[in-house]
Amino acid sequence: MSVSSAATRPQRLILHWFRHGDLRVHDNPALVHSCKQADHIIPVFCFDSNIFGDSVKTPSGSLKCGPRRAKFVLESVTDLRKQLKGSLVVAHGRPDLVFGSILTELKDSKMEISIVCQEEVLKEERDAVQAVQSVLKLHRPRAKLQQIWGSTMYELTDLPFDENLSNMPDTFTPFRNKVEKACKIPKPLPTPKVHFPLTDSVEYKAVFEKLSYLPTLTDLGYTAEQVEEANHDDPRAVMAFCGGESAALARLKEYVWDKDLLKDYFDTRNGMLGADYSSKFSPWLAHGCLSARRIAMECHDYEQQRVANKSTYWMIFELLWRDFCKFFARKYGDVVFYPGGTAGKTDYKWSTYENNFDAWKDGKTGYPLVDANMRELRATGFMSNRGRQNVASYLSIDLNYDWRRGGDFFETYLLDYDVYSNWVNWCGAAGMMGGRLNRFNIVKQSKDYDVNGDYVRHWLPELKDVPKQFVHEPWKMTQFQQMESNCLLGVAYPNPITKPSLPPDSYQSQGKSKGGDRKQTRSTKPNTGRNPHQRYEMKSVRQGRFDMK
Q: How far is it, in rounded angstroms, from Cα 528 to Cα 264?
């Protein structure tokens, strides 16, 4: 704001509300908007009591946010405060009550007050905004709460679809083709200068005490056992994730430039062991510590300075899939949570056999690839993309179990939980978005992506002595071979809870009743360049293109 314009009107104060998907200062459209519109800004982050703590449960009775992810958010907020040079108000409680308290403290302020935040599109997030807006109107009847679109790589208003996205394709490939043809990725926005109120002002004194407050996991309502779980770093984990923009940008630099891994991303991305088979950007992307556009810009610069190939494009491809999930959720709203999904399959009957679900979530299905991935998730909060596709397919198709329970379980445990990516992906995995259903052949996937069994042995010590030819199919061992391998089925490791390679009869009969829309296809995609199918995949998937504005 210019000095002359500021002198002719009351000064403007924006309470900038950081939410769970924009915990950064680089390329933050909402923050840039606030800094352009306001004379002074008070940044606020609220640990929502409707999300954190042992008493906050999902409809299925699971924790809304597990302690490991809560710790990641705490680290991210700590780093955000550092980026803002200490000028971040932190509170714990319902957002409407927190802002009500701040507005009460600001009752003597002569400034024009408003609130700005990033726009989200599903019910819980919208309800929180509506509640804060009501409180704002109560305290300042003429004040406004403004929501700014953010978090996606492509800008909402640039999409070649109607404003409400009614004509947006419901499947990814036509969406991708239209967007790549018509749109360019905006360059990342520069980090703005945040003007906090002067220390002798009414506004500063109103929030001074909250500038040093930061809750602990115990303060957020987690038990001693849960705090211990969050603070335990399993040595088998792919890497140690630390929340925050600083850690995110450090990982980006390390992966793209220092280790020069981007050029091989397409070949290695389906791995499951180690830190560098994929970027591992997802936890930081999910919480907004890292901007998708910043990654795209790095890929663009890498292509200019080092090499442009299918790997450099494929990183953008994966970010575009992330965009698709949020835009799809904006189009359909809370229908993505319905049992029949956006396909509206209201007459579909799911299994209610709880023992199968317990075996799935505990990693005791008798299918090593499923079990290893589920144990990794519970122990570390992370699971590879390949693993997620397989465990989701197994639960929703092979077990015919309500896919929403799987999404709910992931919501509890994932470090990189993002409401849009999680629920749209689960909806699609269960075949509830319409179109083709992909059933994954778990054994074939195991042999394609964990050729020697290193991954399953890493997470399933029961299989450490099982020979390679049986490690993905231990049920094929004779009794003598089981004894030789120290792996008695039904004792050391469970028998498979479904018949190998075939879905249960209940699925087959219901699939037939639904007609061709439940056509089964099996993935044959390989893991690395050593896999004989790699050349086929390189040729079969069309390489697209991306342009920066």
A: 10
8 A C-beta contact, residue 274 and residue 255: no
Q: Mean of the pLDDT values across residues 103-122? A: 97
8 Å CB contact between 193 and 28: no
Residue 354 CA, chain-centre distance (Å), reads 27
Residues shown for the chain = 549
Distance CA 256, CA 251 (A): 8
Distance set, CA 349 to CA 191, 340, 346, 358 (Å): 51, 10, 9, 19
**CA 97 to CA 83: how far, in whole Å?**
26
Query: Helices 354-362 and 403-413 meet at what angle, rounded to 10?
Result: 30
Distances, alpha carbon 120 to alpha carbons 168, 464, 468, in Å: 18, 46, 47
How far is Cα 289 from Cα 28, in angstroms, rounded to an integer? Answer: 10
Burial (CB < 10 A; 0-12, 13-18, 19+), residue 406, is buried
Beta bridge partners of 521: 438
**H/E element, 419:** helix 419-429
Model confidence pLDDT, tens digit, residues 394-438? 999 999 999 999 999 999 999 999 999 999 999 999 999 987 889
Q: Which tens digit of pLDDT belongs to each residue from 466-514?
A: 999 999 999 999 999 999 999 999 999 999 999 986 544 433 333 333 3
Q: Phi, psi (5° rounding) for residue 197? A: -55, 150
Query: What residue has token string 């200062």?
Result: 25
Predicted TM-score (pTM) of the model is 0.92
Distance CA 417, CA 423 (A): 10
Q: How far apart are CA 14 and CA 32, in angstroms?
A: 12
CA distance 224 to 207: 31
Q: Are 245 and 24 in contact (CB under 8 A)?
A: yes
Spatial strand order in the sheet of 89-92:
89-92, 40-47, 12-18, 112-118, 145-148
The 10 Å Cβ neighbour count of residue 18 is 26
Q: Helix, strand, coil: what percent of the chain each, to 5?
A: 50, 10, 45
Mean pLDDT, rounded, of the chain: 92
Partnered with residue 437 across adjacent β-strands are 520
Q: Which two tokens stand for residue 526?
A: 């390989």
Question: Over 12-36, what HEC string results?
Answer: EEEEEEECCCCCCCCCCHHHHHHHH
Q: Are the C-beta atoms of 273 and 458 separated by less than 8 Å?
A: yes
What would the DSSP string read from start to end of 170-182?
Answer: SSHHHHHHHHHHH
Closest CA to 216 of 92, 44, 79: 92
Q: In the chain, what percentage of residues exceed pLDDT 90? A: 87
